[in-house]
Design brief:
The protein is of the alpha+beta class. The protein has helices spanning 3-13, 21-41, 47-57, 74-86, 102-116, 121-141, 146-149, 153-156, 158-169, 174-185, 193-197, 201-221, 237-240, 248-252, 276-288, 305-311, 315-319, 324-328, 331-341, 357-365, 372-377, 414-429, 434-445, 454-460; strands at residues 63-65, 70-72, 296-303, 366-370, 385-391, 396-401. The strands form two sheets. Strands 4-3-5-6 form a four-stranded mixed β-sheet. A two-stranded antiparallel ribbon has the order 1-2. Helix 4 (74-86) packs antiparallel against helix 5 and helix 6 (121-141) packs antiparallel against helix 9 (158-169). The radius of gyration is 21 Å and the shape is globular. The relative contact order is 0.14. Belongs to the PrpD family. Residues 269-442 form the MmgE/PrpD C-terminal domain. This is MmgE/PrpD family protein.
C-alpha cells in the first residue's frame, strides 16, 4: 500500500480521544501563533493588494478573511489568510523538516470549518493535528535540502498536510481522503527562486497550498479521483519532486502514537529561522556590554552550510536589501539591526527601515562564513551562530548560540506565544484593541471546548 493511503486511513479514523495531551497542546500553540502573525502580516507589502484582488474577483461568503470584516469562498479565504500568515516570516518552523507547517494547514482548516459550520473545537483539534503532523513528517522524511532540490517544502509538503486537515473536517472516508491527497499532488508546487529574486510570491506560496488543499478535499467529496500511489509511485512525490531522497519508513514511523508537530519551533523575530541564533548572540553582546554602534570596527558571523546558503549570500543583496524579503533572509542586515536598534521586530524589517544608514553601515561590516565546528555538529536543521564583534579600541567580544530562542532547547510556551500574539495585534490594530486581543487569546487557550469554531473565525473576521 502506498504510504499516502496508509496516512489517509489514519487521518480518516483519527478521533480526539486518540490524541495525546501534548499533541493537543502543540496544536493550541500553533493555532494561536499562526493567527497572530497573520493579523500582523495583513499590512505587509503585497498583502493588501492580493487580498483586494481576491475580494474583488471572488463573491463567496463561506469563510472570513481575517481582519478585513469581509468573507470569500473557503478556498480564496484560505489563500488570503495563508499569505498574511507567512508575509512577515514570523511563523512556526521545523528545523529538521525545513518548513513552516501552520501557514498552510491552519488557514485551510479554519476556512473549511467556517464553510461547513457546526465544527466543534475537538473536531478542529483532530484535523489540525493530523495536518500539522503530516506536513512535518513529509519534511523529516525528505533527505535533500530545499536549496539543493529547489522546492520550497513549506508549500510543497504543507499542501498535503492542509489537504489532510480539510478532508478530515469534511469527514471523508479513507478512500476519498486518499483521493484528496492525490488531487492535491496534481497541484503541488512552491519554489525557492522567489527567495533569490526577492519576489512577493514567496509569501503567497503557503496560501496557494491552503487554497488548493480546500479545493482538493471538496473535489474528493464530490467523487473526483486522484492518484493513489501519490508518495511512493514510480511518478510519485518521492521520485519526481525529491529525486528518490525520500524515506518512507521515516514518514510512517510511529504514525498515530507520536506527533511530529510537537517538534515545531516558534519565532521571537520576524525573519528566517537561519538568522535567529545570530540575532540572539548579537542582542546578548549589545546589551551585556552596552555596545555603542559607532564603536564597532568589524563583525564576523560563523554559521553552518545551510545557514550560509540561505541567509548569507549573495553578500551585496544581504548587506543592502532591495526589498523586505531580502532583509528577512539576511544575517548581515538582521545582526546589524539587532546591534543598532537592540531589537528585531516588525517595524525594523519594514520597507522604510531598509534604508536606515546606521543599520546599513553595520551590515557592511558583517563578514559571514561557514564555521567548521558548527557545520560538523549541526550540519542540517538547527542553524547555530558564532558572532564576534571587534571594537575600534581593539577589544573583541564573542557569543555563540548553538540553538536560538524558540527552538526545542529553548521553547516558547503558550504564555510566551500569547505575549507575542498581543504584540502582533497591537502592531496591527493599535493599543485600543488590547481587550480584543485578550479575548482571542483566551478563546485559543480553550479552543477544544468550543461547540462551534465559527465563534473564533467570526472574532477574527
Amino acid at each position: 500500500m502506498d504510504s499516502s493511503q496508509i496516512i489517509a486511513r489514519h487521518v480518516a479514523g483519527l478521533a480526539f480521544r486518540d490524541l495525546p495531551t501534548s499533541a493537543v497542546e502543540a496544536t493550541r500553540r500553533n493555532l494561536l501563533d499562526t493567527v497572530g502573525v497573520a493579523i500582523a502580516g495583513a499590512a505587509a507589502p503585497g498583502c493588501a493588494a492580493a487580498v483586494g484582488a481576491i475580494l474583488g474577483s471572488d463573491t463567496g461568503t463561506q469563510a472570513a478573511v481575517w481582519g478585513t470584516g469581509r468573507r470569500a469562498s473557503a478556498a480564496e479565504a484560505a489563500l488570503a489568510n495563508g499569505m498574511m500568515a507567512h508575509a512577515l516570516d514570523f511563523d512556526d518552523t521545523h528545523d529538521l523538516a525545513v518548513l513552516h507547517a501552520g501557514v498552510s494547514v491552519v488557514p485551510a482548516a479554519l476556512a473549511m470549518a467556517d464553510r461547513i459550520g457546526g465544527v466543534s473545537g475537538e473536531e478542529l483539534a483532530v484535523a489540525v493535528t493530523a495536518g500539522l503532523d503530516l506536513a512535518c513528517r513529509l519534511g523529516v522524511a525528505t533527505r535533500v535540502s530545499p536549496v539543493v532540490r529547489g522546492w520550497a517544502y513549506t508549500a510543497t509538503h504543507g499542501l498535503f498536510g492542509a489537504t489532510a486537515a480539510a478532508a478530515r473536517l469534511l469527514k471523508l472516508d479513507a478512500e476519498r481522503t486518499g483521493h484528496a491527497l492525490g488531487i492535491a499532488y496534481a497541484q503541488a508546487a512552491g519554489n525557492c527562486q522567489c527567495l533569490v529574486d526577492g519576489a512577493l510570491t514567496k509569501r503567497m506560496q503557503p496560501g496557494f497550498a491552503a487554497r488548493n488543499a480546500v479545493q482538493s478535499a471538496i473535489f474528493a467529496e464530490a467523487g473526483i479521483t486522484g492518484t493513489i500511489h501519490t508518495f511512493d509511485g514510480i511518478h510519485g512525490l518521492g521520485r519526481v519532486y525529491l529525486g528518490g531522497e525520500f524515506d518512507r519508513d521515516v514518514l510512517l514511523r510511529d504514525l498515530g502514537s507520536r506527533y511530529e508537530h510537537e517538534n515545531l519551533g516558534y519565532k521571537p523575530y520576524p525573519a528566517c529561522r537561519h538568522t535567529h541564533a545570530a540575532i540572539d548572540a548579537a542582542l546578548h553582546l549589545a546589551k551585556e556590554h552596552d555596545i555603542a554602534p559607532d564603536t564597532i570596527e568589524a563583525i564576523a558571523v560563523g554559521v553552518n552550510e545551510e545557514g550560509y546558503a540561505n541567509v548569507c549570500i549573495p553578500a551585496e543583496t544581504k548587506c543592502r536589501p532591495r526589498v523586505v524579503v531580502d532583509a528577512q533572509f539576511s544575517i548581515p542586515f538582521c545582526v546589524a539591526t539587532a546591534l543598532a536598534r537592540r531589537r528585531v521586530f516588525i517595524p525594523d524589517l519594514a520597507p522604510d527601515a531598509l534604508g536606515d544608514p546606521a543599520v546599513l553601515r553595520l551590515a557592511s561590516l558583517v563578514r559571514a562564513h561557514v564555521d567548521p565546528r558548527l557545520q560538523q555538529e549541526h550540519g542540517r536543521g538547527v542553524s547555530p551562530a558564532a558572532v564576534s564583534i571587534v571594537l575600534k579600541n581593539g577589544t573583541t567580544l564573542t557569543a555563540v548560540r548553538e540553538e536560538a530562542l524558540g527552538g526545542l532547547g529553548a521553547p516558547m510556551d503558550f504564555d510566551m506565544l500569547a505575549a507575542k500574539f498581543r504584540q502582533c495585534a497591537q502592531h496591527a490594530w493599535g493599543p485600543a484593541a488590547e481587550a480584543r486581543a485578550d479575548a482571542l487569546v483566551e478563546m485559543f487557550r480553550g479552543f477544544e471546548s468550543l461547540p462551534d469554531v465559527r465563534a473564533l473565525t467570526s472574532a477574527l473576521g
